[in-house]
Design brief:
Elements: E1 16-19, H1 35-40, H2 46-62, H3 66-80, H4 85-100, E2 104-105, H5 106-117, E3 121-129, H6 130-140, E4 144-153, E5 156-163, H7 168-181, E6 189-192, H8 198-202, E7 206-210, H9 214-223, E8 227-228, E9 233-234, H10 236-239, H11 246-250, H12 253-259, H13 261-274
Parallel strand pairs: 1-3, 1-6, 3-4, 6-7, 7-8
Antiparallel strand pairs: 2-9, 4-5
């Protein structure tokens, strides 16, 4: 029995498929991509836009390790404190089609469709804010999402994070959902690109590394996990029907706003490490 076997619920339920979002379903960071729109809306500076572009490149090439992700969490919390929620919602709603529409991997959508045809629930598990993940999950026909939850008071971001869907927290949330829904994790599937999601991959019977970073690729090879390479981003509207109601689309704003700070942090962190 392996170290994670004791964490799995008994094999009595049905299987599910758990997907990370960024670089697994979406071809880049689903949140850093909004930096230009926030600049146009007056929420961040031009310098932040340039740093966000660089951070997006760093993220795509090498990802972010555990320490960087923890520092990013603190940084984005401070940055978003006091931002008006409605302002952010309006900005993101206006930019949504131009930013999200061309980012989805065709291979990921096909895989989601295969799981649905096989009768498995599809769950998206992401460190991005729930307001980002839930509408995208709806577009993709997901049955549930697990995502970071930010706190809001009197229409503004407090800067507090109620639940950070990252690393061990992802695995714990999956286990809770499995107990609630009756999923058999030993027969379930999980897909991710990052070594920070090893905990999520370990607790299912069928883990897959998708476009893995260097460390996850090493782990996958040592444990015999299959490696998948997705390389064909397509317009989401070619594969899915986007929700037409403005409230649904505008709901993406909250998670995106608080995550944009991560772009600034990643770039600053890289410059510090090279100094």
């Amino acid at each position: 029995m392996g170290p994670t076997d004791a964490l799995r619920p008994p094999a009595t339920g049905r299987p599910a498929a758990f997907f990370d979002l960024d670089k697994t379903i979406i071809a880049k960071s689903s949140t850093l991509a909004f930096s230009r729109s926030f600049y146009d809306g007056g929420l961040i500076s031009r310098g932040s836009v340039l740093r966000s572009a660089y951070a997006q490149f760093v993220y795509l090439v090498g990802g972010a390790d555990h320490d960087q992700m923890e520092k990013m969490r603190e940084f984005l919390s401070d940055l978003s404190t006091g931002w008006d929620v409605q302002t952010v919602r309006d900005i993101v709603a206006d930019a949504l089609h131009h930013i999200v529409d061309p980012l989805v991997y065709d291979e990921a959508v096909s895989l989601i469709e295969e799981h649905r045809l096989a009768g498995r629930d599809v769950v998206i598990v992401s460190a991005s804010g729930a307001e980002v993940v839930e509408p995208i999950g709806e577009m993709l026909g997901a049955d549930a999402v697990i995502a970071t939850r930010m706190e809001v008071a009197e229409g503004k971001y407090t800067g507090a994070i109620g639940f950070y869907a990252y690393a061990e927290n992802k695995a714990s949330a999956i286990q809770e959902l499995a107990e609630l829904k009756g999923y058999d994790l030993s027969r379930s599937y999980a897909y991710s690109d990052s070594m920070t999601d090893v905990h999520m991959l370990e607790i299912v019977g069928h883990p897959y590394a998708v476009n893995p970073d260097r460390e996850l690729r090493r782990i996958a090879m040592s444990r015999g996990w299959p490696v998948l390479w997705f390389s064909r981003p397509v317009a989401l509207t070619r594969r899915m029907r986007l929700p037409s109601s403005r409230p649904t689309l505008a709901a993406i704003a909250l998670g995106t706003a608080v995550s944009v700070g991560g772009a600034v942090y990643l770039a600053a962190r890289r410059r510090t490490s090279q100094a």
